[in-house]
Specification:
The complex is a heterotetramer of chains A (about 350), B (about 325), C (about 300) and D (about 550). In chain C, about 70% of the residues lie in helices and about 0% in strands. Chain C is an all-alpha fold and about 300 residues long. The two termini of chain C are about 30 Å apart. Chain D contains 17 helices and 21 strands. In chain D, the strands form 6 sheets. In chain D, strands 11, 12, 13, 14, 15, 16 and 17 form a 7-stranded mixed beta sheet that branches. In chain D, strands 1-10-9-8 form a 4-stranded mixed beta sheet, with helices on one face. Chain D has a 4-stranded antiparallel beta sheet with strand order 4-5-7-6, covered by helices on one side. In chain D, β4 and β5 form a beta hairpin. The longest helix of chain D is centred in the C-terminal third of the chain and has 18 residues. Chain D starts with 13 loop residues before the first helix and ends with a strand. The chains are: A alpha/beta (about 350), B mainly alpha (about 325), C mainly alpha (about 300), D alpha+beta (about 550).
């Protein structure tokens, strides 16, 4: 990449280069809908170091995407409102920045990749236009120069014949290629943090692997922090350093990847791991978690997971929800019975 | 793109022929079932048969197939097609004027009226729709929603007559009483009816009345479209790209949202021409619409069918252009 | 099944759509539509605009069906000596120019307007719906032929087409007007159905049903049609309103119903010339008409909002 | 009703318009009016601007200013006065000799001589030219040779090619004299030739009739400015070739409206100086607003309910009398037409010479007498409905409904309206005598001579005798009047004939039109000719 990509527009007031690229502290988001208030995110916290990959794992509707959107500042508001917490970029609370400043953080410092590249790319503009737009609007480049950069980016993400394809429309690309375009777009301005929201869900397994490999490679090259949002434990195992497991808007377990896979400390995490079909267990019924996640407008008191939990006791059904217990120096779990869960195996 | 255009053109031909046959058959049936329209020319006086005969022949109502009820008169249809495509002859009216002449006289007025109407509905309609769509649930949204529904439900002729009497006559007379108001406003724009002295100014209000219903539809369509698109993933992407709100809305949302609106506006040219039937009659605009009304009221089906055939050709061409425009606006269509 | 690959390592429910908090579990066509309808009903009943509009339409409907319920007066009992007497307690709408009771006229006038609208709408729903379904489902030459025929009728602007047909038919009664409205409006509904059939016929559950050997008719009516009904219903509701208005406009242009038939259109176009002198002669029928059209449109809007989760 | 779309009964009859159309302007009344200025008048789109083609009111309004004929009519008395003719004389009422004044020319310089008239009349009469006013040449000898009858009515066979192009009854004597031979004696002939159908046409006009229609070559006090702007306007300016009494305004602008309501709106906004008619519903309001600037006068358009005498149920005249006696005309006029008509008590317009009141003894409401007559006639067939016909879309249904209501109330006969036939079909039904009940029609005079109201409508086999009425005595009296020595001498015979109608009621007279015109503040003197209606050339504007 050419050098001037690293030229940031202007310094953000209060940036501490030594602080972590991203810290989320006790984030609360709610959606005010006709059917009542949905508590989508209820006190999520996590840190991200440079070069680190943090996976946020959870089922649909657990609040992981909302968390990502809140970090990016692209929540649909209304109905979504951030009701509490901090999102710190190198020590600066993004939630306190005026919109004009906040905007400059996006794509420049924190960028995002979306799940479905087909719908996430504007169907009526060429990918070249959509890539070049970044350089034109953030770097003030001419159309021509920006186009050159767009081609470079497509090259970077290994799209063949980039100089021709730059004039194609999103629907003319295959799924995997589209996702590469998405990645190129996210990396264009050389951000320090990349949030990838289910980047491979819509893709074939083989393509999934290629994309993940590409992401990993680019991350390594640039020493980027990566927040990987996914429901796919297989993906997580390969690339993540640390994992936050979310359920009903809360982080219910946070640990290094190996710890989680080896000894889950929360019944939900455990259930997830058990629901992975394994060749060596062929013929056995998958022990999926019984029941459905709660409606976010009506989260049960106490531990949100209690109706589905085989460990649940009376204490779990009463407020307050279980705190994050320190399971080991580097991991936490929000279960009163984490010891039993962990030692159960 | 090329293949798309060719395919679309190929589809165009049967549509044109089909539509024209439909109109032709309607006229034939009309004459077969309700008699020679020439008779009405003479009113209460019974014309000498020779005279009736002569005029009938001249108007081309003499073909024997017109005496057989239900006969589709393919021969006449072939003649008619020949006349239209080789001689550009759409027939004559009962006063023996060429329909093409009638239309040529009338079309400039209708075109001006249409331009005003479409401009009005596009500008105001899209603006109102965007305003309402961006602030769904707000007061502005509510206002746009209610007022558009109201405009749609009031019959256009009631609206037209009320506007003519209250804005053109009552309010206009007040303005005309004020010396400081320039004539172009007081007796041009606020003339209750079309005025040859102010051919443009006196069409503004009729044009607005004509555009009113479609304006409401445009606003509603824009509103819905914006509301749909504003939640689209690619708009979220655009935001995530750190673009200004202006650009997110103005470029990424609007471009997509306006595709159905522009399509509607294109198709609406036809509807507006039809609407001109009412508006032009009320405001005495000597355009196509008034021509159709007058001919319909006198039962001159020859003119009605001739003019409508011509209009339908215009509409079909407009639809074709809209489809092609649609393909330009939305690349997904082009490559299907 | 078909999505084993991605479900292989998936957690819980299928990953369809964004992670928005309102995402519901999607479980195949019938189940989904059932819950959609139940949901829609609940939402509609809570929507005051819909409820008011619905009640209004019921009222007008009952006028049309049982005019005697609303008035004991005979609208045909007229006396020119009572011409244009203003409204009074006993005759709330006054008298028209022939000295007929205007209230009774208005009540009896609801019938043709409603009958035309309802018949024409049912006609286009059945006919347009069927053709749209066939065109969308079979595609190929069936689609080509139906689409071209649709184009032909589509190319006639509504009012112009109606004027041509009615000038030419020269019989202006409920049946011909219904016929003309039907003839000119069916392609729109056919297009709507065709579009949604095409988009739903590739849906997984339809493919699945096909794979297990469901017959064409079953596929069409059990699996595809339910998906297409929502947009059609919305459109049909709005069209009901516009047909009520169309009757009046055609009458104004002199190609609609003819007196001594009674309809709101006739009331409006006969009396619009008197609106400066005796405004009530215009206001009453106009109010009823506008109210009806408005109600249908608002109901259509509410229906669409209720049936389309995007607008929740 | 070509070109004019009033929603009232009378205006929707084709001849109601054409009707009043028979003359030149009457500017002989001593006029103190000032000259100059531009007069802007309400107009409808004319059908034709040639004398041989234009037979509708909008056309005639323009043609009368562009052309002049042999005679004109006195604005007040309707009396015939010589215009371009020196004299119109006949010994036997059959062979007429016409002498012209010299020195008159067309706008293009051609002389207005005997040829100009013979040319024009021949052109109109020749069948293949298909000129509307060919109809008016019907009395001239040789008419059948230039426009032969179609052997099978309207059938597939074409009418035979005419044997000759010229009427044998027209003979040129010298440049300024020609003779006209009629098929039968007709004392009213001089009254007919003031109708624009008898106006002269230049050779250049006949040579290119289409062009002449757009840019007429006239011989009257005004000439066209530019050409006919279809559906928009026709402007005429004072002609310097005209030798007669000059028109008052320098310029007359006919602004063309499709809708009388729109025209009235323009008048209210001060865009028009004269409106010769009013939207029916605005009559009261206009009267209140414009008061002294409203001109009112009895008119000559006749509206009637025809009786199908060819139908058994209507054969007995007592039935017809009973029906007529059940109707309160004034009440209907007040309710539906704001009082804009005069109830008819006879068959000849009250403004015509020889017209009398109360010719019809059964035209005032008398329920008792009606019941009695009905009973004498054997009553109305039980269970049968009285059918009332009118053409569609012209607003006739309203008053016809009121008529039905009144008959129902008086005689207990329920009625049914048949008002869905468009005019063409309606007239065809009339021609074929297929009406099954009372039918609305109208009639207007072709010339100011009471015969025009009598023979064409009630003469045995006459063209517009839609009732199928036959009365030998009536026919004989008409003939007697036709061959009388002079117009005046003919009247007593015609009056006797009218008396027969008053007893037989072949049609039920309803009412006569009433002229209601409004004019603007800047109009100095408004002139209405009792035959040829608003005379714009004689109307003067205030000059400051």
């Amino acid at each position: 990449m050419s050098t001037d990509v690293n030229v940031k527009l202007e310094a953000l007031a209060g940036v501490d280069p030594n602080a972590l690229p991203l810290q989320v502290k006790d984030l609360h988001v709610e959606f005010r809908t006709r059917n009542g208030i949905a508590h989508a995110v209820n006190g999520v916290s996590f840190d991200l170091r440079a070069g680190e990959t943090r996976a946020i794992l959870g089922e649909s509707g657990c609040g992981k995407s909302v968390t990502a959107q809140a970090i990016m500042g692209i929540l649909d508001s209304p109905p979504g409102f951030i009701t509490g917490g901090e999102i710190l970029y190198r020590g600066v609370d993004l939630l306190k920045l005026p919109e004009s400043e906040r905007r400059k953080v996006r794509a420049n410092r924190i960028a995002m990749i979306f799940q479905d590249a087909l719908s996430a790319l504007n169907p009526v503009f060429t990918v070249g236009f959509q890539l070049a737009e970044l350089f034109r609007k953030h770097r003030g480049m001419s159309r021509k120069d920006a186009k050159v950069r767009a081609v470079e980016l497509l090259d970077l993400v290994k799209i063949p014949a980039a100089s021709q394809r730059v004039n194609d429309y999103p629907h003319q690309f295959s799924g995997g290629m589209r996702q590469r375009v998405m990645i190129a777009m996210a990396l264009a301005l050389d951000p320090e943090v990349l949030i990838a929201d289910e980047p491979t869900t819509a893709l074939d397994v083989t393509v999934q692997a290629q994309i993940m490999a590409l992401l990993a490679e680019l991350q390594r090259e640039r020493n980027m922090g990566l927040v990987l949002i996914t429901h796919d434990m297989g993906v997580v195992a390969d690339v993540a350093d640390r994992i936050s497991v979310m359920y009903a808007g809360r982080v219910i377990e946070e640990a290094g990847v190996n710890d989680i896979y080896a000894t889950p400390a929360h019944p939900y995490t455990k259930g997830l791991l058990e629901s992975i079909p394994r060749l060596d267990l062929k013929g056995h019924e998958l022990s999926a978690i019984k029941g459905l996640p709660p409606a976010l407008t009506n989260i049960p008191p106490g531990c949100a997971f209690n109706p589905r939990c085989r460990y649940a006791q009376d204490v779990c059904r009463k407020d307050p929800a279980p705190p994050l217990y320190q399971v080991s120096p580097n991991r936490t779990a929000a279960c009163h019975f984490w010891k039993e869960v962990k030692g159960d195996e | 793109m090329g293949r798309y255009v060719i395919r679309r053109l190929l589809q165009f031909i049967p549509t044109v022929l089909g539509t024209m046959f439909l109109l032709h058959y309607m006229t034939a049936l009309a004459i077969q079932f309700s008699g020679n329209p020439v008779r009405a020319l003479f009113g209460d006086r019974t014309p000498p048969p020779a005279l009736l005969q002569a005029i009938t022949e001249r108007l081309g109502y003499g073909d024997p197939c017109l005496d057989q009820r239900g006969n589709p008169c393919f021969g006449l249809f072939a003649d008619r097609l020949q006349n239209i495509f080789f001689h550009f002859d759409f027939g004559i009216n009962l006063r023996q004027r060429e329909v093409t002449d009638l239309v040529a006289d009338a079309i400039p007025f209708t075109l001006k009226l249409l331009v005003i109407a479409i401009l009005f509905e596009a500008v105001v309609g899209i603006a109102a729709g965007v305003l309402a769509g961006l602030r769904g649930g707000s007061f502005a949204d509510y206002l746009v929603k209610i007022s558009t529904v109201f405009v749609i439900s009031v019959p256009i002729f009631v609206l037209g007559v009320v506007v003519r009497e209250f804005v053109g006559v009552k309010f206009g007379n007040v303005l005309r009483g004020q010396d400081w108001i320039p004539d172009v406003i007081s007796s041009g724009m606020f003339s209750p009816v079309f005025k040859p002295d102010y051919p443009m100014a006196s069409l503004i209000i009729p044009g607005m009345v004509l555009g009113a219903t479609s304006l409401a539809v445009t606003a509603r369509l824009t509103r819905t479209s914006i509301m749909e698109n504003i939640r689209a993933d690619y708009v979220r992407t655009a935001r995530a790209k750190g673009l200004t709100n202006k650009r997110v809305i103005g470029v990424h949302t609007l471009r997509n949202s306006l595709i159905p609106v522009i399509t509607f506006l294109g198709v609406d040219i036809g509807a507006a021409m039809a609407g001109a039937v009412v508006t032009e009659t009320i405001f005495n605009v000597p355009g196509i619409g008034r021509l159709v009304t007058m001919s319909a009221r006198t039962g001159e089906s020859s003119v009605v069918v001739g003019v409508v055939t011509m209009l339908v050709l215009v509409v079909l061409v407009a639809n074709l252009l809209v489809d092609l425009l649609y393909a330009v606006l939305d690349p997904r269509i082009r490559y299907e | 099944m078909s999505d084993l690959t991605s479900a292989g390592t998936a957690v819980g429910g299928a990953p369809v759509g964004g992670d928005g908090p309102s995402t519901e579990a999607t479980t195949g066509g019938e189940g989904r539509s059932a819950s959609l309808w139940a949901d829609a009903r609940r939402q509609l009943l809570r929507d005051p605009i819909f409820v008011i509009a619905f009640i209004y339409v019921l009222v007008v409907g009952s006028m049309a069906a049982f005019p005697k319920l609303w008035t004991s007066q005979d609208p045909r009992s007229c006396n020119t000596d009572r011409s244009r007497i203003s409204p009074s307690g006993e005759h709330p709408f006054g008298f028209d120019i022939l000295g007929c009771d205007y209230y009774a006229h208005a009540i009896y006038g609801a019938r043709p307007s409603m009958v035309i609208a309802v018949m024409a709408t049912s006609g286009i729903v059945l006919f347009g719906g069927t053709l749209g379904l066939l065109a969308g489902y079979y595609g190929g030459w069936v689609d080509t032929i139906i689409s071209r025929v649709m184009d032909i009728f589509f190319s006639l602007p509504f009012l112009l087409g109606a004027i041509v047909f009615l000038t030419v038919i020269k019989r202006q009664n409920i049946w011909t007007i219904t016929g003309v409205l039907f003839l000119l409006a069916w392609p729109t509904i056919a297009r709507i159905i065709r579009g949604s059939v095409i988009s739903s016929k590739d849906l997984d559950y339809v493919q699945a049903a096909k794979a297990v050997g469901a017959r064409n008719s079953r596929l069409m009516f059990r699996h595809i049609l339910p998906n297409a009904i929502a947009p059609m219903l919305v459109y049909a509701t709005i069209v009901l309103g516009s047909f009520v208005a169309a009757e009046a406009t055609l009458t104004f242009l002199g190609v609609g119903l003819q007196p001594p038939a009674q309809s709101w259109g006739i009331m409006i176009s006969t009396h619009q010339v008197y609106f400066l002198e005796d405004p009530w002669l215009l206001l009453f029928p106009c109010g009823l008409l506008v109210g009806t059209v408005l109600s249908f449109i608002l109901m259509g809007d509410a229906l669409r909002d209720a049936l389309d989760p995007k607008f929740r | 009703m070509r070109g004019k779309f009033l929603k009232v009964a009378v205006a929707a009859t084709a001849t109601a318009m054409l009707a009043t159309a028979c003359g030149g302007g009457g500017d002989d009344n001593e006029s103190s009016g000032q000259t100059g200025g531009t007069l802007r008048v309400y107009a409808s789109e004319p059908a034709f601007l040639t004398p041989s083609g234009g037979d509708d009111e909008p056309s005639l309004y323009v043609i009368r200013q562009l052309f002049r004929g042999l005679v004109k009519y006195n604005a007040e008395s309707s009396a015939v006065e010589m215009d371009l003719a020196e004299s119109v004389e006949s010994e036997d009422q059959k062979l007429w000799t016409i002498k012209l004044k010299s020195g008159y020319t067309f706008d293009n310089g051609e002389a207005v001589n005997a040829d100009a008239f013979i040319r024009s009349w021949n052109f109109a009469a020749y069948g293949p030219n298909a000129q509307n006013n060919g109809y008016f040449m019907k009395r001239i000898v040789g008419k059948d040779d230039v426009a032969p009858a179609d052997p099978d009515g309207e059938g597939p066979q074409k009418a035979p090619e005419p044997a000759t192009k010229e009427l044998s009854g027209l003979k040129k004597v010298d440049d300024l004299t020609f003779t006209v031979e009629l098929d039968a004696p007709f004392s009213g002939f001089p009254t007919t030739i003031g109708y624009p159908g008898f106006f002269p046409m230049a050779q250049a006009c006949v040579d290119d009739i289409a062009k002449c229609n757009e840019t007429p070559i006239g011989n009257g006090p005004y000439k066209i400015d530019g050409s006919w702007q279809h559906n928009v306007a026709i402007n005429v300016v004072r002609s310097d070739t005209w030798k007669g009494e000059a028109g008052k305004p320098d310029r007359i602008e006919y602004r063309i409206f499709a809708d009388v309501d729109a025209g009235y709106a323009a008048f209210q906004a001060g865009e028009l100086d004269v409106m010769y008619t009013l939207p029916p519903a605005r009559y009261k309001e206009a009267k209140a607003t414009y008061g002294d600037r409203m001109y009112e006068q009895p008119g000559d358009s006749f509206t009637y309910v025809g009786m199908p005498i060819y139908n058994k149920a209507f054969e007995d005249k007592r039935i017809r009398q009973a029906l007529s006696l059940s109707i309160d005309r004034q009440s209907i006029i007040d309710a539906v037409f704001d009082g804009r008509f005069t109830p008819a008590t006879g068959y000849v317009a009250p403004t015509f010479e020889g017209a009398r009141e109360g010719v019809c003894k059964y035209c005032a409401k008398d329920v008792e007498k009606a019941k009695q007559l009905l009973a004498e006639a054997g009553g109305w067939p039980a269970g049968e409905k009285l059918i009332l016909w009118a053409n569609a879309g012209a607003g006739h249904d309203q008053w016809l409904q009121a008529v039905g209501d009144q008959i129902k109330e008086a005689l207990g006969i329920d009625y049914e309206l048949k008002v869905n036939l468009q005019f063409a079909e309606y007239l065809e039904t009339a021609d074929q005598k297929k009406f099954t009940g009372g039918f609305r029609l109208g009639w207007g005079p072709d010339y100011p001579f009471m015969e025009t109201y009598l023979y064409p409508l009630y003469g045995t086999g006459a063209g517009s005798n839609n009732s199928g009425y036959t009365n030998a005595e009536f026919d004989a009296l008409m003939k007697e009047g036709d061959s009388a020595d002079s117009i005046q001498a003919a009247i007593p015979s015609y009056q006797k004939a009218e008396d027969i109608l008053g007893e037989d009621l072949p049609v039920i007279p309803m009412w006569w039109s009433k002229v209601a015109a409004v004019y603007g503040e800047n109009v100095d003197q408004f002139v209405w000719n009792s035959v040829s209606d608003a005379d714009y050339g004689a109307t003067s504007l205030k000059q400051n």
